[in-house]
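Submission checklist for the structure archive. All mandatory fields must be present; incomplete records are returned to the submitter.

[x] Identifier: SCO family protein
[x] Organism: Methylocystis bryophila
[x] Residue count: 279
[x] Sequence attached
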Amino acid sequence: MSLQPAQPARRGRRARPSLPIGLALVLSLLAVPALAHGVSSAELDGIAYRQAPGARLPLEITLRDENGAPLRLVELFDGPPLILILGYFHCPKLCSVARATLLSVLRDGGLTAGADYTFAAISIDPSEDATAAAGAKAADLAHFGPPGAERHWRFLTGEETALRRLKTAVGFDDRFDERRKAFAHPLGVVFVTPKGVVSGYLLDLGYNAEDIRRATARAASGEIVPPVSPILLLCFDFDSTTGHYSFAIVKALRWGAAATLGLLGLLAFRALQKDMRRV
């Protein structure tokens, strides 16, 4: 079916300006932040991944594995690159979602644990112990575990000093909220070369198997990837006393809405110019 060209407006009649339908989307996006008005900007400022491609991990620090045994970070690097995700195992919100997203893609993406990559989920909460790590590992293995995952998927905890050094190295800025008893922290995946150097990041939950394969291959080859677009997803708590969500995708929506508003404003201006010329 062919589309017929629009008929020009008759002389003497003023054509109605053509407002882009997408403007409604912009208005919706601008309204979304109201869903999270329970969170002040001060609570979220500074919480992000400060991407640090080329940074070296503190391989000498000691963590604890899911059995409670000490494990030096360097022991994770026995050949393949490391796929690293930071969060905490008792997180009531998005940590498990982020981990499940990554592990399901790894399961279905054709990569082999131990040959193509090592995976590590490291808790940012120094109060968590091997019991929490073991429980998270057992649940994730039951749902997503491919061959080799038992040995090459590591769920680790650590003391505050060691965790702080690791977070600083990868640019992970978080904050503990005393009132909510929860961590506000960024979501993302860090890819580390076999020599313990940050190769690159994936900072959203919309990646697919090809994204993971590409990032893993780059890390395996030692490639340092420039920082990705700063779309910010944060994991934060839900405040039952106020009924407000604190999931700070709001920042990403605000940035996206502003950019979209600018684009649609330009389109509307051009459409208006064309309509005026037909008057």
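[x] Structure attached
Curator remark: The helical segments are 23-31, 41-44, 95-108, 130-144, 149-152, 160-170, 209-220, 249-277. Residues 1-39, 237-255 have pLDDT under 50 and may be disordered.
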